[in-house]
Amino acid sequence: MAIINQATKELQVKVVYYGPGKGGKTTNLEQVHSNVQNVRERGKLVSLATSSDRTLFFDFLPVEAMAIKGFKTKFQLYTVPGQVIYNTTRQLVLRGVDGIVFVADSQYDKMAENVESFQNLEDNLKTLRLNFPDIPYVLQYNKRDLPNIAPIEYMEFLLNNREVQVPSFPSVASKCEGVFEALNMITRLLLNKFINEGARKTS
Amino acid sequence: MPGLPPLIAEDVQVLDAALDDLLRKSEATAALIIDKGGPLIGQRGAVDQFDTTTISALAAGSFCATQAIAGLLGEADFASIYQQGERYSLLFCNIDENVLLIVIFKAELSVGAVKYYAAATIRQVGGQLHAAQQRAPETSVDLVSMNVLDVSSIFRKQP
To answer: Which candidate, A8, A155, A196, B159, has a CA 20 to 30 Å from the CA of A71?
Structure first.
């Protein structure tokens, strides 16, 4: 749940990058950290990783956007550990989530892991008593530069085949392609949601 | 899980006053109120000395991980966690379902005293957040003046 402080006109939003292990979630945060330019403040990228650079708990990057119509908007970007065994940790990181970027691996042999991870996301949100349709999310089909990748249409069929389709982006996170597109879209979906909810409450 | 309600000026004043009172009585260095999801809600004291945004995210993760361990031990929860350092020590205290109090204090201070004064802070902060929660459905959230068209590329990549 976003933190709204009307006294200080501050909005804090939590975005979680979710997806199978070695799919590129940490790379997304590294690219945002290295390449973002128009922000008020870019915090330190903190990674709680194993000695072999696999995410153990989470990566965390705080960024404060330029004020939007007087509101200071702080984004907290997190990744979860993708490996199956770290499910309790994924649940902890999902606590208080406002929006999700699901980073799928485009390689054919990773499709089962993508689907399993997406199902795991749904299960974990249920465990946290969060209603999946209420949480804005976007899909990022990563590693489009590798050989043996599945067509976008196939990935859409597997992961974006619901009543309401969500925005999806092909990406090569290691070259920062599709990274900002996904981040800006989840930001836009989130702010739209807060404004609509605010409008409902004020009407 | 109900989230933190929107906070208005009155809430922030009460939270700040409660933290100031704790710092004055306990002689602690800084005190933070954080959401268990990671964001910082309020902070007082010598906060410029520390990266409180990152401390908040890590403390929330650490506390919630410890609560998960409590569950595995058959404990309802661990109400507080104490970390002893050489220069600074830390006390994490549960306030309610959503919120934690973090106190940073010089290692030579007694944790017992900090804990004693923190108990009153927990009651004050918890009471005010409860009042805010009761008020929340009627509170207007003044975000309608934000123009989302302006934020289609809120984050821009370096050329």
So the answer is: B159
